[in-house]
What we know:
The chain is α/β, with parallel strands linked by helices. The chain has 20 helices and eight strands. Among the domains are: 2-122 and 165-177, HUPs (Rossmann fold, 3-Layer(aba) Sandwich), CATH 3.40.50.620; 296-450, DNA Cyclobutane Dipyrimidine Photolyase, subunit A, domain 3 (Orthogonal Bundle), CATH 1.10.579.10.
Amino acid sequence: MRRILWFRRDLRVTDNPLLSLGGEVLPIFIFDTNILDPLPKNDRRVTYIFEQVMRLKRSLQRLDLDLRIFYGDPVEIFKVLEEEGFDEVAASGDYDSYARARDTKVSMILPFNSLHDTHIYQPDEVVKDDGNPYLVFTPFYNRAGSLFGKAHLRHYTPAKQRLLAADYKEITEIKGTSKKSLPLTLGSLGFEENQPSIPSPEAKLSALEKKLQAYAKERDYPALDATSNLSPELRFGVLGIRELLRFLAEQKKRGIDTEPFFRQLVFRDFYACLLYHFPKLAWENHRYPFNGLKDRQKFDAFSEGKTGVLIVDAGIQQLLQTGQMHNRVRMICASFFTKDLLLPWQWGEKFFAQHLLDYDAASNILSWQWSAGTGVDPQPYFRIFNPWLQAKKFDKEAAYIKSWVPELANLSAKHIHDERFMLSYRIENYPGPMVVHKEAANKALEYFKKRVAEGVEHA
Ligand code: FAD
């Protein structure tokens, strides 16, 4: 059997189902021009992925294998590879709309062997008795818990594989039927280095051991380093989900309550499952047709972190400067965007997608729909976060805010959390709050109620 092993969201050798298949193999990674072309040339995710691909290449070499790297459109690349004579392409399942459409096209060129790897459950594993997907998280979570077993902790051991002869030293660029060899550098892809400084997955996992003990109590406080920060590693499979689950099982044996953390991982599965069953959620509301009001000026203030609403601006600064943002702050920002500013959630989703290092279509889209109250499991649209109260509760000393908005360094936490004070206080080179929360929230409510009264609810 001659197999192409196509690495995508599983950039590791440990416990990788692809390596458990025997025979003659050609491990490959594709830098997909459909994804790369629209990105800014200093996109830090490309640096991150390039590094992880190089790391994978070195790990494969230690197993007497290697990684052949391509640059181009996957469909064109497989058309060229097909002529080299293969029996199949094996790859881990990738469930968002673009990936599924791409894999369907590839499967018309070569038999496609899809292996489950990226999530705990297969996308049609946690379903209701009648086979329909769950729309609400808690019953999904309960069912997921009842189905969880040894199979979800399985460790794949490498099989005997023989590497096919090929050029592994360069990047092969394919355009149509023409091939070109490019040096093995980030610059060959037209990108410049933008180093996201993040610790290794091993270091994160070892830090998690301590964090788990206080995870439930501390995970909502953005000034604390209390969460795993593992979302980029999970997104690209640099750390396998089963390895993380086995780690949790070990911690549980030591008497640590791992349930709150496991619950978040199930959230990730829930969102992947929803997008798999309802791909239209990527651009359409499931429920209320609140489309928001398009206002470029408001959007610009938000996306530059210049709203004057300090917790929101701090979150945007963290995002722009590091590609990361704490979950609680993501929720506050998304609520402010869709409620206080009444902007279309699709705009916010796209903005996050451009900057998040851990960008994952399912988690991002469904979280934005949740915040807007338009998703499958919407919080009632009339529940609107008050960003000032949220900041006071979750960033009491304003340590998070001050770390990302240095203009506020000399202000007391008391003043920073006081909307009325901030509305009248002037800071050099920094705007005052662009909306008064109560007024903005009332305006949003009126808009939502009017839309509902017009009888235009989808569900
Ligand atoms: P931990 O608290 O350590 O959680 C462990 C893992 O569980 C995370 O790494 C992540 O894989 C998963 N997880 C945790 N919380 C959630 C959640 N609420 N929803 C889904 N999965 C979760 N997460 C992404 O991975 N990619 C995104 O593009 C993304 N966009 C988001 C957009 C908005 C508006 C909101 C509110 C949330 C979004 N999230 C997204 C979820 C969450 O914010 C991040 O997963 C989390 O902040 C990552 O930090 P962590 O690894 O320290 O999480």
